[in-house]
Input
Amino acid sequence: MKTYKNFEDYFSYFDKEIIEKLEQIRTEIKNEIPEVEECIKYAMPTFTFKIKNLIHFAAYKNHIGIYPGSEAIVVFEKELENYKTSKGSIQIPLSSELPLELINKIANYRKSKILQSTKPLQISGSI
Output
């Protein structure tokens, strides 16, 4: 498996058209959730939020893969019906426009799930 240092290193392996799509995803998510951090995980560009994986994405010969996890695929099933999906992935054909609004909704959904999972426990009742 190829090791990449950062997003730029990963992007540099692709042609201009694919780089533009990858940069669009990067820009949209960073604009939508400025607190995200960039890293490479599983040899893919990954955004983390509060040290948890928010979303991964990657380029392939015929599509861009978005990896938000299986729960997000179920939650957005109706909006994803025009795309090939599997348990935790979405395939967006290179020949189509990126659904940036939908990608933002999915990223925000993941952010809300991370925030829910990192809330301190609330203890109720009296001693």
Notes: DSSP finds four helices and six strands in the chain.
